[in-house]
Design a protein that fits this description.
There is one protein chain. The protein is of the alpha+beta class. It has one domain (2-156): Cytidine Deaminase, domain 2, CATH 3.40.140.10. It is built from four helices and seven strands. Strands 1, 2, 3, 4, 5, 6 and 7 form a seven-stranded mixed sheet that branches. α3 (120-129) runs antiparallel to α4. The chain is globular, with a radius of gyration of 15 Å. The two termini are 22 Å apart. It binds zinc ion (2 copies). One zinc ion is lined by residues 78, 80, 119, 121-122.
């Protein structure tokens, strides 16, 4: 992981804020997240979290109600998944070597600091399609992870 500075950081911050704008379209009752995928300065895919098929609303269901074997207990299709699917359908030939930006909004609708990576669903998917870097806006700055590293960290995650 490396923390960006200078021009690189300012440019990346614009993409983080753009991901935040995308996040504001989410209708999720728990969290509003957005993601954009950029290659050579061009947005090739974007997405926000929302219910599967626009119908299957589970935002009010407690994760504790699901069995341990239910692999993804989150209510919505994740913003990163949506952005990846969007990029595959619009710019499938440009996804290899791209960079994914992620943003989560706080209650006031501002982009909030991300914690440690933990979503193995998105990390595996990003790695599998050939996205090179995963970017999080964190307290220490804008952090760029190699996607392989991001996937390893997600699997190593420990809460508390
Ligand atoms: Zn939801
Ligand atoms: Zn995810």
């Amino acid at each position: 992981m490396r923390i960006l500075s200078g021009v690189e950081a300012r440019r990346a911050m614009r993409s983080v804020l753009k991901a935040g704008e995308v996040a504001s379209k989410s209708g999720c009752g728990r969290a509003k997240c957005g993601s954009i995928i950029v290659n050579n300065g061009k947005i090739i895919g974007e997405g926000f979290n929302s219910s599967a098929g626009g119908e299957d609303k589970r935002c009010g269901v407690s994760k504790a109600d699901f069995d341990l074997k239910v692999t993804d207990k989150t209510c919505c299709v994740h913003a990163e998944q949506r952005a990846i699917m969007n990029a595959l359908s619009r710019n499938g030939d440009r996804i290899v070597g791209s960079r994914l930006y992620f943003a989560r909004l706080d209650k006031e609708g501002e982009v909030s600091f991300a914690g440690d990576p933990y979503c193995t669903i998105c990390s595996k998917m990003a790695l599998d399609v050939g996205i090179s870097e995963f970017v999080l806006f964190r307290e220490e700055g804008i952090c760029v992870f190699d996607t392989k590293e991001y996937n390893d960290l997600s699997f190593e995650y420990m809460s508390g």
